[in-house]
Write a structure and sequence with these properties.
This protein has 5 helices and no strands. The protein is mainly alpha-helical and 70 residues long. Helix 2 (24-31) packs across helix 3 (35-42).
Length: 70
């Protein structure tokens, strides 16, 4: 049985990434994780840690990423 919050975050990550026309590798780089990590998040196989989750939420809400803030 899937955990609903995990699936919801996975769906939000996937939809945002697709809307921005980013590959998993590109989005993983933007948020500072490996492709494998992002893939596991999108497939609800694991969840981001608290700090990673906050960074992802900021990106999902504002579209801001580390490349824009440097």
């Amino acid at each position: 049985k899937e955990n609903m919050p995990e699936r919801k975050l996975a769906d939000r990550i996937f939809k945002y990434r697709k809307a921005k026309k980013l590959s998993q590798e590109e989005f993983a780089y933007i948020i500072g994780v490996s492709f494998v990590t992002l893939n596991r998040w999108e497939n609800s196989l694991s969840m981001p840690r608290v700090l990673q989750k906050r960074a992802i939420e900021r990106i999902l809400l504002t579209g801001e990423n580390k490349e824009q803030t440097q």
